[in-house]
Design brief:
Layout lengths: L2 H39 L7 H4 L6 H14 L6 H35 L3 H48 L4 H7 L7 H42 L9 H20 L3 H24 L1 H7 L2 H55 L16 H53 L31 E4 L4 E9 L5 E10 L5 E4 L6 H9 L8 E4 L5 E4 L10 H6 L11 H10 L4 H6 L8 H4 L2 H15 L3 E5 L7 H13 L3 E5 L11 E5 L5 E5 L2 H34 L5 H4 L1
Parallel strand pairs: 1-5, 4-8, 4-9, 6-7, 7-8
Antiparallel strand pairs: 2-3, 2-5, 9-10
Helix pairs in contact: 3-12, 4-5, 4-7, 4-12, 5-7, 6-12, 7-12, 8-11, 9-11, 9-12, 11-12, 15-18
This protein binds adenosine-5'-triphosphate (ATP).
Family: Belongs to the ABC transporter superfamily. ABCD family. Peroxisomal fatty acyl CoA transporter (TC 3.A.1.203) subfamily.
InterPro entries: AAA+_ATPase (IPR003593), ABC1_TM_dom (IPR011527), ABC1_TM_sf (IPR036640), ABC_transporter-like_ATP-bd (IPR003439), ABC_transporter-like_CS (IPR017871), ABC_transporter_sub-D (IPR050835), P-loop_NTPase (IPR027417)
Protein name: ATP-binding cassette sub-family D member 2
């Protein structure tokens, strides 16, 4: 064995050992991680199996793609149509330019073989002149591609926003349906990547198809000129066979990139969602020093994303290797053989335009060889692009599925068709499964618009998870009533509001209620929209819709004793981050100022004065009643009883009562209850003292004392 071979052998063995050791280490690491997973540490990413299992290049994908393409269909005369035409024209011009350049290269080689300086300089000059439009066309292709992607994205985004903001779909998607985990990501990233992948693929495929057609035609014409050459029929057949063989092998061995990228996008969305949650709850997390828990959670999500990305990278490594081998080296050899067949088998007279200087036609043969080699390699490039775009088509299938699913879910939610994917249910769960309605059951109750009364007839209150909170509710509220709603936590008080406002589906029974514009909800933490102080008061009106002038707005602020804020913050037109700069009580009072601005028929007040002092709260309630607003109030404060006429009480076990509220009687009962509670609280202390006295007096033990 020579020294060089020995060195080669040792270094290869060393590399192999290192490689095997690394693989073993990774195997161990994976095992450890799997163990921790089975111990319950893995975050349960709910698999939307229905959407990911069928992601591949098939009929379903084509149908989905067609549905989406119909949305951004570039109509005749539109900007997108003009862009599309420009794009296709530039692609065609590029193909003709490539052929012309291949011919020029042939002419350059010929002039070199002939040692013809004049021709050489002339062709070089032409080459450089052609390079200018050629470079411009290359740049134009990219420009039109990006503009097209943007145009498609804009159309799709507008369409998606229309669906998202129709019929409270934004609420329904997140609260009543669980198919879309991260609609924000679907609406931003997914649409963007779908539009850019699609347009890229369009030019990636259009140009090679044009290339293949025009180059084949040029090559066939060249070969046809050599009538006595052999292989004129065999070469095209062999070429087609080689191409199909390669395509078949790659298709068989290709990993399912569609499913892989779709899963990766889902995990990326979950990671982003976790970050958004931390930003939204940063203050509470900081108070509790909860950063470790949050960090671990985020890291776990990141690791899951990393694993998926890693998987894709690994799968691509082997696939690209195979692709390169077949389409670069195998094809190159085949191409050389195919060019050689007509050239070698030609036995006619030498074809030359210079019989004196080059009687054997060597320069012409060299020129032909160079031209056909260039054309063939451009053709091979084109076919390579077509075949390798299979991978991208598979990726497009994944992206299409995500966009299609988003639009489909939006549409279903807008039409009150919900689906919830059951999360893992603990074996010892206390949920009475019999009380669960079918999660995918269609809501069959009726909502009928009334003039002013709210009439509920045998309507159950059912959560989006299918839990029945109240089997059947029946009551009638008229505008002169002011209803107090009470009951233990989680008994369905806020759900009653969601029900009458139509946010939750009515599964059976009938609900008569006035138009939703007659309801105004003020929650415990009112929503502060972006904009000025004026925008906060008139929300959801905009400045163009408002009917109140500055004095009227000041009066509304006065009702809630918040007039000082105008001066403090620099006027009604001051823009601030109101969510952060106002205190909890100020936000609640601003929410109540909104009620005075809109003067609804029914105000739904959900513990919205918990941070307001009792005297201000009383004034606000009095004023609201004077203005003819009917109050439906959820509260635990007895101080508010006096402002109500009726009581709706849930007991937390599915039962309820609706009756006239006798505040005096209720206050007496409440007083008695509190007295008894205070007395009972003192009993252990009395028992303790009694026991001590028994001991000091040497009398009977505590049991006998009793
Ligand atoms: N979006 C939702 N998806 C699933 N279940 C929900 C949803 N919102 C509320 N629930 C469930 O419905 C039940 C009633 O909730 P609701 O908000 O009406 O309670 P509540 O009586 O207002 O309680 P509290 O006094 O604590 O505010 C609870 O068990 C809650 O877990």
């Amino acid at each position: 064995m020579s020294r060089r071979v020995k060195i080669l052998f040792v270094s290869s063995s060393f590399t192999l050992i290192i490689y095997l050791l690394r693989r073993y280490r990774r195997y161990l690491l994976r095992k450890t991680r799997q163990t921790s997973v089975t111990q319950g540490s893995l975050i349960n990413i709910p698999s939307s199996s229905s959407s990911s299992s069928g992601i591949s290049v098939n009929k379903r994908f084509l149908n989905q793609l067609l549905v989406i393409i119909r949305i951004f269909n570039p109509r005749f005369g539109s900007d997108a149509f003009f862009l599309l035409i420009t794009h296709v024209t530039t692609l065609i011009s590029r193909t003709f330019l490539s052929i012309y350049i291949a011919r020029l290269e042939g002419a350059i080689v010929k002039s070199l073989v002939q040692r013809n300086l004049r021709d050489f300089i002339r062709t070089i000059c032409i080459f450089l002149t052609v390079a200018v439009p050629s470079s411009f066309i290359n740049s134009l292709i990219r420009y039109t591609e990006s503009k097209l992607a943007l145009a498609f994205r804009t159309k799709l985004t507008r369409y998606a926003y229309d669906s998202y903001f129709r019929n409270q779909t934004y609420f329904r998607v997140s609260n009543l349906d669980s198919r879309l985990l991260t609609p924000d990501q679907n609406l931003t990233d997914d649409i963007e990547t779908f539009a850019s992948t699609l347009t890229h693929l369009f030019s990636q495929l259009t140009k090679p198809f044009l290339d293949v057609a025009i180059i084949t035609w040029t090559l066939v014409r060249m070969v046809q000129q050599k009538k006595t050459a052999r292989g004129l029929r065999e070469v095209p057949i062999l070429t087609i066979m080689v191409i199909f063989l390669t395509f078949w092998a790659l298709r068989k061995l290709s990993p399912r990139f569609g499913r892989l990228v779709s899963e990766e996008a889902k995990r990326r969305g979950l990671l982003r969602f976790a970050h958004t949650r931390i930003i939204a709850n940063a203050e509470e997390i900081a108070f509790f020093d909860g950063h470790e828990v949050e960090k671990n959670w985020i890291l776990k999500l990141y690791n899951q994303l990393r694993e998926q990305t890693n998987l894709i990278i690994k799968k691509k490594l082997w696939f690209i290797m195979l692709e390169q081998f077949l389409m670069k080296y195998f094809w190159h050899s085949c191409g050389m053989i195919f060019i050689a067949i007509p050239l070698l088998s030609y036995d006619g007279p030498p074809t030359t335009d210079d019989p004196i200087g080059d009687p054997l036609g060597i320069s012409t043969r060299t020129q032909e060889f160079t031209v056909s080699k260039n054309l063939l390699s451009s053709g091979a490039d084109a076919v390579e692009r077509i075949i390798s775009s299979y991978k991208e088509i598979a990726e497009l299938a994944g992206r299409t599925n995500r966009v299609y699913t988003m639009l489909h879910v939006f549409d279903e939610c807008a039409n009150e068709r919900y689906r919830r994917i059951s999360m893992t249910i603990d074996d010892h769960t206390s949920i009475d499964m019999k009380r669960k309605v079918m999660l995918n059951q269609q809501a069959e109750g009726q909502i009928i618009e009334s003039d002013e009364n709210i009439i509920v007839e045998n309507v159950p209150i059912i959560t989006p998870n299918g839990d029945i909170i109240v089997e059947s509710l029946s009551l009638k509220i008229i505008p002169t009533m002011h209803v107090l709603i009470t009951g233990p936590n989680g008994c369905g008080k806020s759900s009653f509001f969601r029900l009458i406002r139509g946010l939750w589906p009515i599964y059976s029974g009938r609900l008569y209620r006035p138009n939703p514009s007659n309801f105004f909800l003020i929650p415990q933490k009112p929503y502060m929209c972006p904009g000025t102080l004026r925008d906060q008061i008139i929300y959801p009106h905009t400045i163009d819709q408002t009917f109140a002038n500055d004095d009227q707005l000041m009066e509304m602020l006065h009702y809630v004793e918040l007039q000082y804020i105008v001066q403090r913050e620099g006027g009604l037109n001051a823009e601030r981050d109101w969510k952060d700069i106002l205190s909890g009580g100020e936000k609640q009072r601003l929410g109540l100022a909104r009620m005075f601005y809109h003067k609804p028929k029914y105000a739904l007040l959900d513990e919205c004065t918990s941070a307001v002092s009792i005297d201000v709260e009383g004034k606000i309630y009095e004023r609201a009643k004077q203005l003819g607003i009917s109050l439906l109030t959820i509260t635990h404060r007895p101080s508010l009883w006096a402002y109500h006429t009726h009581l709706l009480q849930f007991n937390g076990e599915g039962q309820w009562t609706f009756e006239v509220l006798n505040t005096e009687k209720r206050l007496t009962l409440k007083g008695e209850k509190e007295r008894l509670e205070a007395q009972l609280a003192g009993v252990p202390a009395i028992q303790q003292r009694l026991s001590e006295l028994c001991h000091l007096l040497g009398e009977d033990t505590i049991d006998n004392c009793k």
